[in-house]
Design goal:
Length: about 220
């Protein structure tokens, strides 16, 4: 690829980014969303509701497997499994109103149902792969509180809801079963014109890439 073509590509990318910033008062941001989560072991009725009282829940910072204290103390087949709930209260700046808001999970173990402000936003049933949700239409801005709630199930015999089949890779002799939100979580706020996140699960996006082809190595 000629140097002039590379320069034109870089100028084009810079121009797109500058135009996006000029047309939006709140620029793109990626926030660490790991702190100030709450945990309760068990399938708690109504835990997805905004009015639910979680004052006595365990406070933690992610990543945090709910059964992590059993690490190296129990054999894999004896690790605790079942349903737990995670909740998090958060606020968004008024200046971000009208922007796109995404929440990104790098992975959970192993399936979960997710709610924001009491509204169901989606399900993930694919082990520890990354996934995300577009929550732009269900969040509040300014002084209003937001609550994200996640019902996580790490049962050995979990079956996908659509097919009633077990995960083929779910084997007590192979995978240590540390359940819950076991990877980082991020919050993304972007303009309505934005570069897609490389998260196919739920968001159905694969990101944007620039690459060279037809390179004459000898030249």
């Amino acid at each position: 690829m000629e140097a002039s073509i590379v320069r034109h590509l870089l100028l084009l990318i810079c121009s797109i980014k500058m135009n996006a910033s000029e047309n939006n008062s709140f620029p793109s941001r990626k926030y660490n969303f790991n702190n100030q989560w709450l945990l309760k072991i068990g399938d708690i009725p109504g835990a997805q509701e905004t009015s639910f009282n979680d004052a006595d829940w365990k406070k933690l910072t992610l990543p945090a497997a709910w059964n992590e204290d059993e690490a190296f103390k129990k054999d894999i087949v004896e690790l605790s499994t079942g349903i737990v709930w995670y909740r998090k209260h958060f606020k968004l700046p008024e200046a971000a109103k009208g922007q796109k808001v995404f929440v990104e999970f790098e992975g959970i173990r192993q399936a979960g149902e997710f709610y924001v402000n009491g509204k169901f936003v989606g399900i993930h049933e694919n082990g520890v792969t990354a996934f995300g949700f577009d929550i732009s239409d269900v969040v509040n801005f300014g002084n209003e509180d937001n609550i994200i709630a996640a019902r996580i199930d790490n049962s050995w015999d979990y079956r996908e809801k659509a097919t009633n089949t077990k995960f083929q890779w779910e084997d007590k002799n192979f995978n240590a079963n540390y359940g819950g939100i076991i990877r980082n979580v991020f919050l993304h706020i972007t303009p309505k014109l934005y570069q897609t996140l490389p998260l196919y699960s739920n968001l159905k996006t694969t990101g944007v890439y620039v690459y060279a082809q037809g390179i004459d190595i000898k030249s």
